[in-house]
Design a protein that fits this description.
Blueprint lengths: L3 E7 L4 E7 L4 E7 L9 H19 L6 E8 L5 H15 L6 E4 H9 L5 E6 L3 E6 L5 E3 L9 H17 L7 H8 L5 H9 L15 H10 L2 H24 L7 E6 L9 H8 L4 E4 L5 H13 L5 H6 L12
Parallel strand pairs: 1-4, 4-5, 6-9, 9-10
Antiparallel strand pairs: 1-2, 2-3, 6-7, 7-8
Helix pairs in contact: 1-2, 3-10, 4-8, 7-8, 8-9
């Protein structure tokens, strides 16, 4: 048995792998693209996860034989067959000696933001999700929530509001000016054409999430349309967190609600407040480490190790220029 821990956070934008020593000292970091097997394909997602792990192990000057345990906190680990596919695929592609820990990324987020991995989490990045784990180890997260509440949802709702305003069936909004500037369009109709035209110059749907920051900015500045969009997303995320708490028997008593993901790092408090308004009894918890560290801690739990959180917290994983923004 080795003395290194491998933790992986697989998202829709970026997959990050960290190899750490038992004491929590980070030995290597690697990055890949989308690791969500539902948002790309099983083969493509597993390949991006493998790429990130291989890079992290190479940076640590180690191979898989040096691992004491490995844990993967993954967006797209949703249904029972997903876990079977991921465990089998990761063992095969990484030549692991035994099946690794694989959890939905909301469960990794709970471990990232609590000492014992018990509580509820809301993750709001490219997409939004909620999940929970209780003291008995029982876990709940829904495979696909009914609404897209992450950056993709915020951006899409904002664009729809802009086009409704142009048609006169919705209120005016300051989001219009932000969008026209963002995509260099003459007017909302030209913007709609840019997103729907048939030729190769169409704006890809992957750019919709990039407008989430503008939505949060304008909501904070007081635009009523933007505020309604943000409140709706927050209320839905909070509702899903409440369901997760209820399904794991935590509703009705105080519990930590871990709030994480790139969208929730925005300075505006409106989204966070809207989430908390829908979750009675929740005590907000904001992780002091990156989500991937939750996966490292899950690997440590599997190995019976207690790495120093200070070592993990102080580790500079990479500069913004080296890793894609999450």
């Amino acid at each position: 048995m080795g003395d290194l821990l491998l933790g992986v956070d697989g998202g829709n934008t970026t997959t990050i792998a960290v190899v750490a020593r038992i004491d929590g000292t980070v030995a290597g970091v690697g990055a890949g693209g989308c690791g969500d097997i539902h948002n790309t394909s099983p083969d493509a997602g597993l390949e991006e996860i493998r790429r990130a792990c291989t890079a992290a192990l190479a940076a640590a000057g180690a191979d898989v034989e040096a691992l004491a345990a490995a844990a993967f906190s993954l967006a797209g680990a949703d249904w029972p067959e997903d876990f079977e596919l991921l465990r089998r695929g990761l063992v095969e592609r990484l030549a692991l000696a035994e099946a690794p820990v694989v959890v939905n990324d909301t469960i990794g987020a709970i471990r990232c933001g609590t000492d014992d991995g018990v509580g509820v989490a809301v993750a709001c990045g490219t997409h939004g999700a909620a999940g929970a784990r209780n003291r008995a180890g029982e876990v709940f997260h829904f495979g696909f929530w009914p609404d897209d509440t992450g950056a993709t949802g915020l951006g899409s709702e904002a664009l729809a509001a802009i086009w409704r305003a142009e048609l006169g069936v919705g209120p005016e909004t300051s989001l219009t000016g932000r969008a026209l500037d963002r995509w260099q369009a003459a007017d909302p109709v030209a913007l709609l054409h840019a997103f729907t035209r048939l030729d190769g110059s169409r704006v890809p749907a992957t750019e919709r999430p990039l407008f989430a920051d503008a939505v949060l900015d304008e909501a904070e500045a007081g635009d009523a349309v933007a505020r309604d969009i943000v409140r709706l997303a927050g209320n839905r995320l909070g509702g899903y967190a409440r369901v997760s708490a209820e399904r794991t028997g935590q509703l009705g008593s105080p519990f930590p609600l871990v709030l994480c993901g790139g969208v929730l790092r925005h300075p505006s408090v409106l989204l966070r407040e809207s989430i908390l308004d829908s979750v009675p009894g929740a005590a907000p918890a904001y992780p002091s480490v990156e989500p991937v560290i939750g996966a490292v801690l899950l690997a440590a739990d599997a190995a019976g190790a207690r790495p120093s959180l200070d070592n993990l917290r102080e580790a500079a994983l990479s500069s913004p220029a080296e890793l894609p923004a999450r």
